[in-house]
Specification:
This protein is α+β, with helices and mostly antiparallel strands. The longest helix has 28 residues. The relative contact order is 0.07. The chain contains six helices and four strands. It folds into two domains: 59 residues; 73 residues. Strands 3-2-1-4 form a four-stranded mixed sheet.
């Protein structure tokens, strides 16, 4: 595992390369799939998470952010919510699924002449993931019960009566 030290002057030092690096270089390590750990040079404390958050902030302030304001607001709302752990597990599992599908898709592009089929499958899976995410948000923001419009209740009741007749 690569060790990066952060000094009080905010500079990052890559111990493997024996040189100072930037957040952009740490971002590149992530893109390359390399394992690393960032430690405070004075205390030895693991500060990897705070560096990762800084990278996310830089990316989100760029020209094509991933998170909408609404999504970030909901994320922040979960910090004080009873569903905090559930939400974290949900995000982690879905990112794993997305990553696996992305890897399969890329492998399919290289090995399979039917790459359009793989692309279609990936798009369907992504649509499924988005729907599942929206349902989770709906459940979490309505007190863990399915959201429904008030006008839907009478229709559902009428449908049930019709089925019984």
């Amino acid at each position: 595992m690569r060790i990066i030290k952060k000094y009080p002057n905010r500079r990052l030092y890559d111990t493997e390369k024996s040189s100072y690096i930037t957040l952009a270089a740490v971002y590149q390590l992530i893109r390359e799939g390399l394992d690393f750990k960032v430690v405070d040079a004075e205390s030895g404390e693991d500060i990897t998470r705070s560096i990762l958050i800084q990278i996310i902030i830089e990316q989100e302030n760029g020209e094509s952010p991933i998170f909408t304001t609404e999504m970030l607001t909901k994320f922040i709302g979960f910090y004080d919510d009873a569903a905090k752990n559930l939400f974290g597990e949900f995000l982690e599992k879905n990112l794993q699924i997305f990553t696996e599908h992305q890897k399969r898709y890329m492998a399919g592009m290289m090995d399979n002449p039917m790459s359009r089929v793989m692309q279609d499958m990936t798009e369907r899976n992504l649509d499924f993931w988005k729907g599942m995410q929206q349902r989770f948000f709906d459940l979490a923001t309505t007190g863990m019960r399915p959201a429904g419009k008030p006008e839907e209740a009478p229709d559902a009741e009428a449908d049930l009566k019709k089925k019984r007749q």
